[in-house]
Design goal:
alpha+beta, 2 domains, 5-stranded mixed β-sheet, 4-stranded antiparallel β-sheet, 14 helices, globular
């Protein structure tokens, strides 16, 4: 088995000239076509596999090692494995060898195979082909061939593009002392044009960042419970309690994005009347190309720019919050939650009390904007850099939202119930769940709450809780799920 070492990424802007940007655009487009060719070939091979008698026989087998071995043999027989796609790509990369090197071509094949692998294992329904302009990155496999980083310069098939490193950026200068594993070239559409970046994948852990006050990111001491929802997060340690909105700044762009989408739709319908049926749906039988006005292109660029800003704001909010959480302690507990399941539409058809059908939409847009899983990934990554881990508690076994540590009972509550009442003591539901998660017994099972620890720390928790809720009441805007 290949030995893995820890790694991290440093992103540096490229100082490109116009001819270099043209060459890079050409190579991104070639990479897109190679990727689509791989996906197309994988679909052909998979359909051939599905029509075979061996496949139908293997599907009827009972779950176990024999069935897994049968499928592994079939995948190998029909060329549905990573290195077979590398072999399929080899003659194409040789044809375009002036622009695409062998290692970058193999990485494109690996990328297509990993996406298609989800279809093979039932984790996805289909793999989409990339449209023009949708290929946003190309990477190599090592810093010895293909795309390389040499003396603050990206070297790739005749191109030598310097990276921009600021003299006062001490973090980057420290990071560049580490070994470069491989290089990725990435582009972003910024204010109507593409900006190019080099992402250096470096071996080791990131250097510590300092400011005038000393170390910027410090790890606290103690237990921390995290109750994370679709749009809020509640955390509790012995010294601090926090209830806050996830990525609070993303809502600033949501309304404008929706307005631009409506304008784009009106423009597209005006320019392409034959593309739509009388009921407003798209006419799939009309195969002519779409016509886009200059106004539509301006709106589309503005739409892309807003999404880019939204993405960057969300990332900054999560980085800041993860640092704040890291300073609360060094032993973290969080409930497992299937955010992927919450994205799906409800299968049940139900009516409300007025006799109208309920919407089947659930939390797709909220999860897209707030990205709670991304925050946990950021926190887990930073914990690993410090030799720590994020302890994941089984939700079904612990049932923190239902438990009452005073009488050791479980009571189901509706989602709209935001407060717990313990004989006149009112505690916000999410903060109480975080308090209980903080009290989890640290063992292999992670399925027991330490009641003695709960009784010992509840008094100080209640004081911190009341202080936080009083502060939230003074804010001009809070989410309904906070119960303020």
């Amino acid at each position: 088995m290949r030995k893995t070492t820890p790694s991290y990424i440093v992103t540096l802007r490229l100082k490109t000239e116009v001819f270099q940007e043209d060459t890079l655009n050409k190579r991104f487009e070639l990479s897109r076509k190679l990727y689509n060719a791989c996906v197309n070939e994988l679909y052909k091979r998979y359909r051939t596999l599905q029509q075979s008698k061996s496949y139908k026989k293997a599907r009827k087998m009972k779950k176990g090692k024999a069935k897994n071995d049968a499928f592994s043999a079939l995948y190998k027989q029909f060329g549905l494995f990573e290195y077979s796609i590398h072999a399929f790509l080899k003659p194409m990369t040789q044809k375009f060898k002036q622009n695409i090197d062998a290692q970058s071509g193999q990485k494109i094949g690996t990328r297509a195979f990993l996406a298609f692998k989800k279809v093979m294992f039932g984790d996805a329904k289909k793999v989409y082909f990339k449209r023009y302009g949708e290929m946003e990155s190309v990477e190599g496999k090592s810093n010895k061939a293909g795309i390389r980083f040499i003396d603050h310069t990206i070297v790739w098939k005749g191109l030598s593009i310097p990276v921009i490193v600021k003299k006062q950026d001490a973090y980057v200068h420290l990071a560049l002392r580490d070994k470069v594993k491989y290089v990725r070239i990435k582009r972003e559409f910024l204010k109507g044009k593409y900006i190019y970046y080099a992402q250096l994948v470096l071996e080791g852990i990131p250097p510590h960042a300092y400011n005038s006050d000393g170390l910027k990111q410090q790890v606290g001491v103690g237990r921390v419970g995290i109750d994370i929802g679709t749009s809020t997060i509640a955390t509790c340690s012995e010294k601090k309690v926090l209830l806050t909105e996830l990525a609070p700044r993303v809502v600033n762009y949501e309304a404008e994005i929706q307005r631009i989408q409506r304008k784009m739709d009106r423009s597209k319908r005006t320019q392409n009347p034959s593309k739509y049926n009388d009921d407003g749906t798209i006419n799939r039988h009309y195969r002519e190309r779409w016509v886009y006005s200059k106004r539509y292109i301006q709106l589309r660029n503005r739409y892309r720019e807003l999404h880019r800003k939204n993405r960057m704001v969300r990332k900054q909010d999560h980085e800041t919050l993860s640092n704040e959480l890291l300073a609360m302690g060094d032993l973290f507990f969080v409930e497992t939650m299937s955010f992927k399941g919450l994205q799906k539409r409800s299968k049940k058809t139900e009516k409300n009390k007025h006799g109208r059908f309920k919407k089947k939409k659930r939390f797709g847009r909220t999860l897209s904007n707030r990205a709670p899983s991304m925050l946990l990934n950021y926190l887990e990554r930073k914990l690993k850099y410090n030799g720590l881990e994020l302890n994941k508690v089984d939700t079904a076994k612990v049932k923190a939202s239902q438990y009452n540590h005073f009488d050791d009972t479980y009571t189901k509550k509706t989602l709209s119930t935001r407060w717990n009442d313990f004989n006149g003591i009112r505690i916000q539901r999410d903060l109480y769940s975080a308090f209980l998660l903080m009290s989890i017994v640290k063992d292999d099972e992670l399925d027991k709450i330490d009641r003695d620890f709960c009784f010992k720390t509840f008094g100080s928790f209640r004081k911190l809780h009341d202080r936080v809720m009083q502060t939230l009441k003074t804010k001009t805007r809070t989410l309904q799920s906070m119960g303020v």
